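Loading example: each entry is read as two labelled lines plus one structure line.
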Amino acid sequence: MVWNWDYLRGDHNSRQEPVVRTLVIIPAFNEEQSIGDVIVKVKESVPLAHIAVISDGSIDSTAQIAERMGTFVINLSYNLGIGGAVQTGYIFAHEMGYDIVARLDGDGQHDPAQLASLIRPVASGEADVVIGSRYVSGQGYQASLSRAIGIKLFATLVSLITGQRFTDTTSGFHAANRAAACFLAQHLPTDYPEIEGLVLLCKAGFRVREVPVTMRPRQAGESSITPFRAAYYVFKVLLAILIGLLRRVPARNEVDVGAR
Amino acid sequence: MLARVEIVAILGSLSLLAIVIELVRRRQLAEAYSLLWLLTAVALLVLSLWRELLDVLAHLVGIFYPPTALFVVGFGFVLLILLQFSVVISRLSRENKELAQQIGLLNWKLSQLRGKDVGDNIQGEK
């Protein structure tokens, strides 16, 4: 897919361009089994949106498949981890001037058909950031008991800190408007981007909302999470959140929304 | 007559000082990171030469055998140096991440300008 450079210069007379310019970013690390299916479904769900696949140091054919399917592909030379990959997507969106940025995982656990319900509240201006939560309705794939406990723990903690009720703080199924995407391009934490990012967004004054989604177990490939790692993860995240509380948070109006 | 422990301490801290200065002279150690090492070597040297100061210091913190205070002081400096390393490593990894992100984005822009895929070449080089 070739970028239309007029798009960048703000000349949007071209009829093909959607009025609200939307980018869907898909971070992917060795997801050749599922990435094609995800891209097809994203195109069905939001046909006018552009898609950028961030290949996070993949050594399989993830990037080639995405390229062949006509998405923008950004290759990271080595694996940065989910936070670094997603942030690359936000930087890209910011530089290219998209109005709305949605994000879903390349492993197929997020259903692209539900992208529209995430994007709608952002497009209408009801929220700056919308997060797909699998616990608002409690339907579809549910995590195992130990994971559910961890997720519940984080949800309680984040709700206490932000003063707003959240049910699924580890969800990576998001939509954000231009200001929030710009904020995340600059401040998205690298280590635990979902939870820490959520706390940061709330403290910076962005309006964050959860909408119910159903998630599926990952379609292919290996999850990187083992029980020991999960416990270690819970501990590290708690530490990161608590130390993060001591940090000064940049306010949303400090964010430079103009082009970088 | 110097006690054996004093001679060892003096020679040890002198060697450390000489090694650090030589590394900086050969530009194998950046000045910025040599500062803490130099301070360590000088502090140990002063305390090895000046026995009274060491005695006073040991007495102040309740150490009965004064040469042990040398280890305590050395250990404190080593902790500082390690902490400095952690800070530097954190900064390097952040800058490293930003570089990888910018290279990825620049490669994409380059491929767009060329009208063909540069990404494939990068993948092929692995």
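Strands of chain A lie at 22-28, 50-56, 72-76, 100-103, 129-133, 174-177, 208-212.
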